[in-house]
Structure formats: C-alpha cells, structure tokens
C-alpha cells in the first residue's frame, strides 16, 4: 500500500527522503510528498503524480536535518495535490504521513471541526495531525499527544510525525508495517527496508502498539502506556544493488532474469542426501498434523495451489482458501489443522486476519514469506523464508517461483512427518532435478522466443491460458500476470473446463497458451485441439518432444525436467510473454494502474 520514509540525524534530510520515496514507489505512486523541519517551521512539499513529479516541483532542495515522506496509493479521496501526504494541522505545526485506514475518521473529523479545526483534503489521514495538535494543546507534550491520538484511532496505521520546533520524529504502528533503520549518524523509519538499504542494513521490526521517538542521537521504543520496550535488532542480508534496476529497463525484467539466483538461494542447504533438510522445520515437526489449509491472495494464492496439489498427491487432506474469504469459506479447524499462510511481504492484511482467525479456532500456523521479521513471521507459530531477495516490481515474478519451490519442499517434509501420508516414490529423483532448476531457468532466459511471440499476438482481443494439475496454477498465474501489466483481457482455466463455457469466447483472435508439465497433459492437448478447431492459435509451453507441440502453431520451449518443476519453467516463459507484450503496448510495467505491491489494508 502506501510508502512511508522518515529520517533524522545530522546533515540535510531532503535528499535521503526523496531517494527513499523512489525506492518505495512500488508501494504507491498516485501522489508523493515530503515535510522537512529546519527550525523555522515545517515545510511541506507535495503533489499528485509520481516521485519524479515531486522532485520537478521543488524550486530548490529544502534544508533541515529531519523530515518525513510519503508515496500514496489512494484509498480515501482521489490522487490530488490536496490529498497527497504529508498532512498538517490547521496551523501547519504538525505534519503526518500514514499508511492504513482510519475507520472512525468521519466521527473524529466532525468532532474536530466542531472545535474549530479546518480540513483541506478528502483523506482519513488528515484527522491525525489535528488530533495530535488538539492533545498538544491539552497536555503541552507532543509525545503524550501522539499516544493519546493513536489511542483514539480505530483501524490500521503506520504513522510518522514531526512537530515545529522539536528535534524529534514520532511514530506508531498498528496493523501496517513499519521498520526502524539504525545507522551511526542517522535513524530511519520506513514501510519497507529498501527505502533506506543504501544507508544501513541494521533494522528493528516494530510491532503493533509500539510508539517510537527518534532524536538526532538516540531512539526510544515504548508501549502505549510509556513502558520502555526492548526490540531485537536484525541484520538484513539483501544487497543494496538488489533493490535497483541495474542495466534493465524495468524492475520486472530484472527480477525475471534474477530467478536463477533467487532460486539458488531458496534451495541452498535444503536438500541433503536425497532428502529435504529444513533447518526451521526439522523431521517430526508436523507429526500431529491431520489436515492442511493454505491461505493466500493473488500470486501467492497460485503458489499455494501448487503446494496443495502436491500435498493431495501425498494423501494429506488439503484445501486452499483465498484469505479474504477464510472466515466464511474454510473447512473445520481444530488442533490437528495446520494453516499455511503464503505471503511475500508478510504484511498482507487479509492473510494476517485469516491466520488470527485460525489461531483463535485452535489451529497451528506456519508463515511462508520473504521478509524476516514481518508480521506474519512473528505472529505465526513457525516461519519458513523463501529467500528471494527484494522484489520491487508490483507484478510478482521471482517470488512466485521461490514460493512454489519452498512449498514443494514443505510438502515433502509434511509427507514424511504425517503418519497417514505417502511420500512421493520418486522423491530422491525429484529433489535431484530441483538442484538443476536454476540452470534450467537460465537456459529458458537465454533461448526464449517470448518477445517474437508477443509481437505477433499483441493485437489479439483475448488471451487464454490452460493447464492441468500443476499446470493449472501456472495457467492462472500466467493470466494474472498478463492482465496485471498489459491491461488486456486474459483468463486462466483448468484445461478440462474450457469446453464448459469459456470455449464460447474462443475465436481466431484468442491465442490459447497450453501449459504442459509432463504429467496429466492429455486433457490439455485435447482442449487445445478443440480451441484450435474454433480458429484459436495454440501456443505450447512445453519440452521440445512433448506431444502438444504436434498441434501447436507456436512453441515456447522448456528443458526436460521432473513434472513438479516443469510448470515453473513454463511460468518463466509466460512472465516473459507478459513483459514483452506490456512493453510493446507502452504500459507502466513496474507500476500498473490501480495496483500496489503489498495490500496492507482490507
């Protein structure tokens, strides 16, 4: 959702704030702004548009050793200059940036207006600086005013605030991510680590209810009552270069091409003598598990489908539930239930709520995430990390591959632990083939014809993606990626479902991408032929010698490998097709309209 950056220390803050916003622009890009405190007032600069628009609007760089910044993804009110953050109180003495949703803002706004406060925006955020101002008037203490303000708020928030004449940044979080960065001469606050990764890799992941006060030489963390808290410091193992585009035109293309490395990191140390070796989850961890529920959203949901398919093959009772529907759609939950929350950021609001609901019903929980110290990792009973490194492009690419591999390894641990399960007979072969997956992805990247195919099909009216078994989740992910960044109509189907309705939409302007994994591909071929007889051009995404290539007009080749991994190679080809089609259409690939990288509000 929105991106927050704050900095305090020695020397000017503005350049750091602006570069931090550029690093966070994947979280929101409807509008942007900064506020700097320099001893002669709080200076706010903001505008609708992207961070580059903000930088262009600055006649000169504002001076001051402390400040806050924000890049917005609109919830309350359209993306206008007035609705851009930071927001201030009536006098302009208090400036605030906020990520989240304030549920009781209408009520608070009315109460504050009755007391003479004047509002200039449509946002829920604007009540916060007015509340702080109101309580400062009552108490004469800004820190106490911040505490009282956040106690008044209902909903979710990560907040950073500065006050005229005070050498301090005040912050608080509840339900929205906020991380503290520690350096020798400056402190940072941000929604995500890449905001300040160029400056420090020492971080503290703040927790719900934390209040933070930073001054140029120290920081304090307390609870809402003012009791000091001792939060552990972590070292982030991401390279700052991983958060930049490097030689690539787009983050998405860089992250697609980074998959051999990210997958190597995912796999490293997790296969030993033909068996799964998960340091976080040793043998016997799941011996009491009877059923498994996966909860996830978007791309993570498709990765969860991948894992669930493998678990069912092992004879373990499994369901996949969209996190937003968990309360009403999940099956029975008890102490024998393992709920696996799949979330790249570890901050996805719907997924976190599903985990909390499952925990309340007695289930055990496991987070599969990319971010050490994230809320999901802290709140779940156990956590396993996908180790994909930072992903900036809004459309997930390398994290899907790493999620799917991590879940595949997890399913083998479960199959070995659960007494009623049946581990795969060819598990040793499957794991040996997994070691070759990074090299196979590299070969796809070096030999792909995706750009040529995109050029030939870019004027089509619709795009269908079909697959069976593991290929079904890849087809769904391929369609999602295509619609996310091209804005063209694309749908994914289980291969056998094409003739149960969707075939009515097939014409000679509807390319059908048929995903083959080497297991259960008969239905995929049959339905591809049926679409072909209606005029649809067929694109086979398969190994060279697969029977599907006999009926396809175009072939996107993948190396021969175990069926469990073939779908992930096909997925790389589909990512590249989506990327090149979006590039030809001149779409904003890294920041598709209406979307944000991490959905931290429900």
What do you see in this structure?
By secondary structure, this protein is an alpha/beta fold. Helices cover 34% and strands 22% of the residues. The chain has 18 helices and 26 strands. The strands form 5 sheets. It has an 8-stranded antiparallel β-sheet, with helices on one face. Helix 4 packs across helix 5 (142-152), helix 8 packs parallel to helix 12 and helix 14 runs parallel beside helix 18. The longest helix is centred in the last third of the chain and has 22 residues, at 563-584. The chain is globular, with a radius of gyration of 25 Å. The termini are close together. The mean pLDDT is 91.
Number of strands: 26
Radius of gyration equals 25 Å
Major pleated sheet = 8 strands, antiparallel
- How many H/I helical runs? 18
Q: Low-confidence stretches at least 5 residues in length (pLDDT < 50)?
A: none
User: Termini distance?
Assistant: 11 Å
What percentage of residues falls in helices of 4 or more residues?
A: 25-40%
Which sequence of strands runs across the widest sheet? 3-2-4-1-10-9-11-14
Please tell me what the overall shape is: globular
């Amino acid at each position: 959702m929105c991106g927050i950056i704050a900095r305090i220390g020695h020397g000017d803050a503005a350049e750091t704030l602006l570069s931090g916003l550029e690093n966070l622009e994947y979280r929101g890009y409807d509008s942007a702004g900064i506020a700097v405190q320099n001893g002669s007032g709080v200076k706010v600069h903001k505008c609708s548009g992207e961070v580059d628009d903000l930088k262009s609007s600055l006649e000169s760089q504002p001076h001051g050793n402390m400040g806050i910044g924000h890049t917005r993804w609109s919830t309350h009110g359209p993306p206008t200059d007035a609705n851009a953050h930071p927001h201030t109180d009536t006098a302009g003495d208090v400036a605030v940036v906020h990520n989240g949703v304030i549920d009781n803002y209408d009520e608070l706004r009315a109460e504050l207006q009755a007391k003479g406060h004047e509002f200039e925006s449509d946002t829920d955020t604007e009540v916060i600086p007015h509340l702080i101002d109101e309580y400062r008037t009552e108490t004469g203490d800004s820190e106490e005013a911040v505490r009282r303000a956040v106690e008044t708020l209902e909903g979710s928030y990560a907040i950073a605030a500065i006050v005229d004449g005070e050498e301090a940044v005040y912050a608080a979080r509840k339900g929205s991510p906020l991380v503290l960065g520690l350096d020798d001469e400056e402190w940072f606050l941000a929604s995500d680590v890449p905001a300040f990764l160029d400056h420090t890799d020492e971080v503290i992941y703040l927790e719900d209810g934390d209040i933070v006060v930073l001054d140029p030489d120290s920081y304090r963390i307390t609870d809402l009552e003012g009791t000091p808290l001792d939060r552990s410091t972590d070292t982030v193992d991401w390279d700052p270069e991983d958060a930049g585009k490097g030689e690539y035109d787009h983050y998405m293309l860089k992250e697609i091409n980074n998959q051999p490395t990210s997958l190597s990191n995912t796999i490293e140390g997790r296969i030993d003598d033909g068996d799964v070796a998960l340091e976080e989850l040793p043998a016997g961890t799941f011996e009491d598990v009877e059923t498994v529920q996966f909860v996830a959203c978007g791309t993570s949901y498709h990765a969860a489908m991948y894992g669930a398919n493998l678990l069912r093959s092992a004879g373990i009772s499994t369901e996949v539930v969209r996190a937003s529907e968990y309360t009403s759609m999940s099956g029975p939950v008890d102490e024998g239930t393992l709920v696996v929350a799949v979330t790249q950021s570890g901050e996805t609001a719907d997924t976190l709520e599903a985990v909390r609901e499952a925990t309340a019903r007695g289930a055990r929980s496991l987070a599969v995430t990319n971010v050490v110290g994230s809320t999901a990792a802290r709140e779940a009973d156990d956590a396993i990390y996908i180790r994909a490194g930072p992903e900036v492009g809004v459309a997930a690419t390398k994290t899907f591959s790493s999620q799917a591999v991590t879940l595949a390894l997890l399913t083998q641990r479960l199959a070995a632990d659960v007494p009623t399960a049946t581990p795969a007979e060819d598990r040793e072969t499957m794991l040996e083939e997994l070691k070759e997956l990074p090299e196979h992805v590299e070969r796809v990247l070096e030999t792909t014809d995706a750009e040529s195919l995109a050029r030939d099909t870019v004027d089509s009216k619709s795009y269908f993606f079909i697959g069976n078994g593991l290929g079904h989740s890849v087809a769904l992910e391929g369609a999602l990626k295509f619609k996310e960044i091209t804005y063209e109509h694309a749908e994914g189907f289980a291969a056998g479902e094409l003739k149960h309705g969707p075939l009515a939409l097939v014409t000679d302007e509807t390319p059908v991408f048929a995903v083959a994994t080497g297991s259960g591909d008969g239905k995929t071929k049959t339905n591809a032929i049926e679409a072909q007889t209606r005029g649809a051009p067929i694109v086979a995404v398969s190994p060279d010698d697969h029977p599907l290539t006999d009926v396809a007009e175009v072939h996107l080749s993948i190396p021969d490998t175990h069926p469990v991994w073939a779908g992930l190679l096909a997925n790389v080809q589909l990512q590249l097709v989506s990327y090149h089609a979006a590039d030809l259409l001149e779409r904003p690939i890294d920041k598709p309209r209406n979307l944000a990288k991490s959905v931290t509000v429900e």
